[in-house]
Amino acid sequence: MSIPSIEPAGFVPFVAPTVAPQAAAATAPTGGAGFGDLVADSLDRLEGLQDRTDQLAVSAATGDLDDIHDYTIAATEASVATQMTVAVRNKAIEAFTEIMRMPIG
CA 20 to 30 Å from 44, out of 5, 11, 102, 105? Predict the structure, then answer.
């Protein structure tokens, strides 16, 4: 009995590049991926995980899925990714609320 390999979830964590402050100021206007682009990409990846989980759930319900652990792993990955997304959203809302409480004068 061979052990099946586990496929990666497709989640690639973002690691900010380390750039000297002078170089960062020089390259900032030319851009790269902005925060909005990173958020949109992460949400697209989350949607892909959930779609894969849904497809595996349908396959499991119809009896077409050979290994139920594939669905279990996909469902857990989607759940963890959703929890992470909600946690990031909550922290962003907390930060925005704190900024709005700061005195102007």
Answer: 5
